[in-house]
User: Which sequence fits this backbone?
């Protein structure tokens, strides 16, 4: 095979003026191929412009959604459908993402996630830091279902765990919440057959491995970047004050 190509390569060298020119041509081709691959990856990413707000009921997603958009406090109630709006980044008005607040009720959340997951550039998973200790198993259950979904695994959207309601004295810290979630997720992956199924229940392939086999689970093992932030959609001064969303807003700038 190599012998058959040699005459052609020799002829190409003569046309180009020697081996140095051929090396330059090969280098340029390599750069062009790398650029095309980069454009393809960026194109797929730019096609996903949504930031999904997920979490259990009463985690504070809808108030957080309202605060990000208007800065104002408003009374909220349990959502039974999605809400979406364009969020313009404060540091760059020309850059924006679409925020989508999804219902947290157990009978609705997977249905709505199935509808919007393919469009997700990033996911904000909102946790009630005050109720976390009694809700940890339910929180971990929902998060587990998100993390083993085949579309989420393939697209690997950035993930932020927003530890909300930090204005309340009994709120758990982001560090404790991370440790407890890692422990619960590790238990879930041991006790379940984690097939990467679509959220409608249809199987799409072989078994998914959450994290690294043979090691206790931690978030660094996931294909997407996972961060934790403490926040308060209500704010320390209640309805009249400002929300404490600085960490969340900085993260949105990074993922936009």
Assistant:
């Amino acid at each position: 095979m190599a012998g058959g190509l040699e005459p052609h390569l020799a002829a190409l060298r003569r046309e180009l003026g020697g081996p140095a020119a051929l090396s330059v041509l090969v280098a340029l081709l390599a750069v062009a191929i790398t650029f095309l691959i980069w454009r393809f990856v960026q194109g797929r990413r730019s096609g996903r412009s949504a930031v999904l707000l997920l979490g259990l009921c009463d985690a504070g997603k809808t108030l957080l959604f309202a605060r990000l958009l208007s800065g104002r406090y408003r009374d909220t109630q349990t959502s039974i459908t999605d809400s979406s709006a364009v969020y313009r980044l404060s540091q760059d008005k020309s850059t924006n993402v679409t925020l989508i607040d999804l219902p947290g009720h157990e009978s609705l959340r997977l249905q709505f996630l199935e509808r919007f997951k393919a469009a997700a550039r990033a996911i904000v998973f909102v946790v009630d830091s005050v109720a976390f200790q009694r809700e940890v198993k339910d929180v971990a259950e929902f998060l587990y279902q998100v993390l083993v979904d085949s579309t989420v695994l393939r697209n690997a959207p950035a993930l932020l765990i927003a530890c909300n309601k930090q204005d309340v004295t009994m709120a758990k810290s982001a560090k404790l919440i991370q440790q407890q979630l890692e422990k619960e997720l590790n238990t879930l992956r041991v006790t379940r057959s984690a097939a990467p199924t679509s959220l409608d229940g249809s199987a799409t392939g072989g078994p998914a491995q959450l994290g690294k086999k043979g090691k206790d689970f931690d978030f660094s093992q996931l294909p997407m970047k996972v961060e934790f932030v403490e926040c308060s959609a209500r704010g320390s001064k209640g309805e009249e004050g400002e929300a404490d969303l600085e960490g969340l807003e900085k993260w949105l700038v990074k993922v936009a």
About this structure: Residues 166 and 232 are 5 Å apart (CA to CA). The beta strands are 50-55, 83-88, 96-101, 120-128, 158-164, 226-230. Confidence is low (pLDDT under 50) at residues 40-45. The chain has two domains: 14-42, 45-195+208-255.
